[in-house]
Amino acid sequence: MKITDVKSYNLRYPLIEPFANARGWTKTRTAVVVEIRTDAGITGWGEGISVPSTSAIETYLIGHSPFETERIWEALRGNIGASSGVDIALWDIMGKALDMPIYQLLGGAFRLKIPAYASGLFKKEKQDITQALMDEAKGYVDAGFPAVKMKIGFGDAYDVKNVAAVRRAIGDNTLFAVDANCGYDVGTAIDVGQQLADYGLFWYEEPITTDDVAGYREIRHALKVRVAGGEMLQGRWAFRDLLQQRGVDIVQPDVSIAGGFTECRKIAAMASANYVRVLPHMWGSSIRLAATLHWQATLPDAPQALKPIPSLLEFDMTENGLRTELAKQPIHAVDGYVNVPQAPGLGIDINRDVLEKYA
Hints:
The protein is built from 13 helices and twelve strands. The protein is of the alpha/beta class. The protein folds into two domains: 3-99, Enolase-like, domain 1 (2-Layer Sandwich), CATH 3.30.390; 104-339, TIM Barrel, CATH 3.20.20. The protein is globular.
């Protein structure tokens, strides 16, 4: 079987209601989708954050076997944002060719039903943002989610007031994470973290820019809360110091950013060797969601225990037609759990009408 064609699609979905994190306002959702076709009639789909160059496609992909994932990844490593999407598409082809879901190709699943946390609670243009956040969070609990994540990083007055309000809304039994999206410096991150300490946070995500490993170590030592980060890092080298120096308690590689399945397996191994827990980041289309489910299914509990810390899937709750419409079989959370797709490859079929609509 040989690769015969590679196409990329830049997708854009305009939001009805914009929302903000600490870095700015989001008015559209985007995705870079890769389609790889073969002479066996099998098509693979992937999602990255950039487009592979024409020269790379012609030299390293066309006419080659889709099973050569390591060789192709090394050839494309100069553009990891593009290699991520290519790699996911290759694994999708391999799974379809072998009539196996990707998680089986990756070594088998530790779980086929993954507990999810509702990822939402952004800042919006609301007359009473505090009440809006409380209502949203309560809705997630009522839907069965065992955990929620809220956006902070807007200053201690906003953060402390609204974290306290959301904690009241969700009660004491729901796991509660916050995400500052690198909106603080070290001193402010520590100050805000100390003020939030009374609200039982499960983790404090990306308080500062991820490449400041020394800053992460300082924050970890100053606070009695797990620190998480790493969603925008690309390739194992970008994760090395953060993991080896124990800058975070939880590392969050994104399969569509960090390098696809081929590279994320190596990042997970490096994290395991340094006793750092892996909880993947997920913020994209239905392709990235399916890929994340397959990868997360294969990650063992760390540490292995009679009652382990749950391997929580990030389930994006914001408006995004690229996540809810692109796959013919939408992936839903039911009572706070998401099933890993069981069909071959990624386990989803792409709706080409929707693909063209948002391209």
